Amino acid sequence: MFDRLFKRRGSGQETARAFNPEHAIHVTLDELINLRMQARHLSLHSKLPATHVMSGNHISHFKGRGMDYMESRIYQAGDDIRNMDWRVTARTGQPHIKLFQEERQRPVIMMLDFNPGMFFASQGRFKSVVASQAAALLAWSALNNGDRVGGLIINHGHTEIADQAGKKGILALLHAIEKHSNPHKYLHEYLQAQSPASSRPGDNEHFSEGLQRLVRMSRPGSLVFVFSDFYQLDAAAIKQLSLLKQHCDCVLIRLSDPLETTPPPANRYAVSNGQQQAVINTANQQQAKHYQRWFGSHQQQLRDVTRKLAMPLIELSTAQPPLDTLRKHFSLRTRGRSSR
């Protein structure tokens, strides 16, 4: 069924020739499936040095395949404390660690944060579209490597896609991405969530709670990609990232727009969050400097966090095709050098 679906949709080149401006704000299943061919240029090789994607000098290697829990035993000197079995330790009063058996297939998990700010671009494509395309490319690459693919999507709730082997797993992920990245559907649900009768949590709570779910669903040895603009990165979210780091390889992929780093030309601009409106006067030098400082401080905070947690950070822009950036970090040439 999957092969028939893929063949009917044609190649990525055909999609490029028939580009529709609507694709700049909403990704379709056709597009995500067609990225299968482009993903051949990427490799999620287990020996890929983290320096290729780090904003710093930390050197490490992806752990590789996932690990299945076997049993717990009493802690011995030299054991990795990251494998402590705290439940058994609390029950017996003696420190125990978990023992794992290597899986044949590594779980690769894509977490996509579709908060309101992700449905924006001043040029190119929405952050949500670029994130969706990048996630699909990496998922196809994982499939090519024989890995299992799963995901977690944060929208007005949390949608989990259990990792599965083969085409069935990736098709489930792509269907979920198409559904939850639709800005028209999101706007309708967002306005409902803002009604006085709504008791839904705020965006920050959604993000940190999403990361908490990610920690629970990611098995030891998983390779996890987190796609977000990270404006909801708070102490609770940082704590969950730290927990995730203890048993998984985690790569943070930040989505940004050129307008976020450079103020627009001098003028007065109306801005809104859907409920309130304000005016930014970039002709005022003080406001323009404040504008740059605010975005600069957010970017520096994220870099400080990734450096402290020794997590790779990749920057994707709405103005550039994601494949161009991903190839710099997950190039087949890197795999070729490591295998020589």
List keywords for this structure.
single chain, 340 residues, alpha/beta, Rossmann fold, two-stranded antiparallel sheet, disordered N terminus
Evaluate the radius of gyration.
Answer: 21 Å
Main sheet: which strands, in order across?
5-4-3-6-7-10
CATH class of the largest domain: Alpha Beta
- CATH homologous superfamily designation of the largest domain: von Willebrand factor, type A domain
| Total number of helices | 13
Enter the CATH topology name of the largest domain.
Rossmann fold
Task: Identify the CATH architecture of the largest domain.
Answer: 3-Layer(aba) Sandwich
Give the averaged pLDDT, no decimals.
Answer: 80
Number of strands: 10
Tell me the domain tally.
Answer: 2
Strand-pairing-aware structural class: alpha/beta
Structural commentary:
By secondary structure, the protein is an alpha/beta fold. Helix content is 43%, strand content 19%. It folds into 2 domains: 2-62 and 106-256 and 302-319, von Willebrand factor, type A domain (Rossmann fold), CATH 3.40.50; 67-102, no CATH class. The protein is built from 13 helices and 10 strands. Strand 6, helix 9 (235-245) and strand 7 form a beta-alpha-beta unit.
